[in-house]
Amino acid sequence: MELPENLDHFVHVGKITKPHGIRGEVKIIAFSGDAAPFKGYHDMVLVDGRGKMSLATLKKCRVQDRFAVVVLAGITTRNHAEELAGMQVWVDESHLPDLDDTEFYWRDVMGGAVVSSDGQHIGKLINLFDAGGSDMMVVQTDRGEVLVPAQREFIVEVNEAGIVVDLPPGLLDVNVKD
């Protein structure tokens, strides 16, 4: 694989958090919450804090909870591994695992409409983040940004148009983030 000109067809899948051990392994947090797919990511693009891209080839991978502990080609010492801490990990979208009918990638619905189960337009999905206990959707409404828990109990349907939610009464009023 050659270094791409841009990341248009790549997906941000994780971040190198720190070295692991003394032989050059690094620990990568998987943004999906599941590090198992990292075993299939042979080629990755690493992006540093200044936006500089570099290629990385996976040699070995094992999973520890939400983390992939990996050996990258050419990284053989802890000092080399320390230089990678903080780098963002991107993979070509063609390497993403296939999904079943009940699954989706957040990137496919980002920017889509968020609608209540009774058909009322709530807003537009503009961000998603890990809040520790669960993911949170940031929805841009006409009153400002609203945080909506991205939990199965609130998400009724996900389709090409966006996300249908069934929220507890008052949730949108209490958490308007102006």
What does this structure look like?
There is one protein chain. The chain is mostly beta strands. The chain has two domains: 10-95, Elongation Factor Tu (Ef-tu), domain 3; 106-177, SH3 type barrels, CATH 2.30.30.240. It has three helices and 13 strands, in the order E-E-E-E-E-H-E-H-E-E-E-E-E-E-H-E. The strands form two sheets. The chain has a seven-stranded mixed beta sheet with strand order 11-12-7-8-9-10-13. A six-stranded antiparallel barrel has the order 1-2-5-4-3-6. The relative contact order is 0.15.
List the keywords.
mainly beta; 178 residues; 2 domains; 3 helices; 8% helix; seven-stranded mixed β-sheet
Q: Layout of SSEs?
A:
Layout: E1 10-20, E2 25-30, E3 43-47, E4 53-64, E5 67-72, H1 78-84, E6 88-92, H2 106-109, E7 113-116, E8 121-130, E9 135-141, E10 144-149, E11 155-159, E12 162-165, H3 171-174, E13 176-177
Parallel strand pairs: 7-12
Antiparallel strand pairs: 1-2, 1-6, 2-5, 3-4, 3-6, 4-5, 7-8, 8-9, 9-10, 10-13, 11-12
Briefly say what this structure is.
With 178 residues, this protein is mostly beta strands.
* Helix/strand/pairing category: mainly beta
Radius of gyration: 19 Å
Q: At the fourth CATH level, what is the homologous superfamily of the largest domain?
A: RimM
Largest sheet: 7 strands, mixed
Number of helices: 3
Helicity range:
under 10%
Low-pLDDT stretches are: none
How widely separated are the two ends?
45 Å
Taken as a percent bin, the fraction of beta residues is: over 45%
- Count the E strands: 13
CATH class of the largest domain: Mainly Beta
Task: Label the overall shape.
Answer: elongated
Q: Any idea how many domains? A: 2
Determine the CATH topology of the largest domain.
Answer: Elongation Factor Tu (Ef-tu), domain 3
Read across the widest sheet, the strand sequence of neighbours is 11-12-7-8-9-10-13
